[in-house]
Write a structure and sequence with these properties.
This protein is α+β, with helices and mostly antiparallel strands. The protein has one domain. Helix content is 39%, strand content 17%. Strands 1-2-3 form a three-stranded antiparallel sheet, with helices on one face. Strands 4-5 form a two-stranded antiparallel sheet. The radius of gyration is 17 Å and the shape is globular.
């Protein structure tokens, strides 16, 4: 899980937290953004790509999915006004690592329900 904190909703990254599936912290750092960012739909990808370019690092190429969008759909709180599911606030520390840990708990919650209700016996046996 990865989470960023920004200076504003359409602002720039000021903190990054990355945790493993077991909840251990893989990376945590405050960031000096030094330059403005332009907002896009997958803002996390753009922020990481910008930082990689700035510091001559290889850009990440994997697909990204938003755990909070998946959790909103899982909870089913539909908003006719927004035409989408509404996000459920995370409980706990509102810093990057705290948010990543809270998101990991939401993913574990969804995975447990999937395993219990939807996974075939063969899938459960493989895990």
């Amino acid at each position: 899980m990865i989470d960023t904190e920004t200076t504003a909703l359409d602002g720039v990254v000021c903190e990054i937290g990355v945790i493993a599936g077991d909840g251990s912290i893989l990376f945590h750092s405050l960031v000096n953004p030094e330059c403005p960012m332009w907002p896009i739909m997958w803002i996390l990808t753009a922020r990481l790509a910008q930082s990689a370019r700035r510091y001559c690092l290889q850009e990440l190429t994997q697909e990204w999915e938003c755990a909070m969008e998946a959790y909103a759909a899982y909870c089913g709180n539909w908003s006719d006004y927004h035409g989408d599911y509404t996000w459920i606030p995370l409980a706990g520390n509102p810093r990057a690592v705290g948010d990543a840990l809270a998101a990991l708990e939401r993913v574990r919650e969804m995975a447990a329900v999937y395993e219990r209700e939807y996974a075939s016996p063969a899938e459960v046996e493989q895990s």
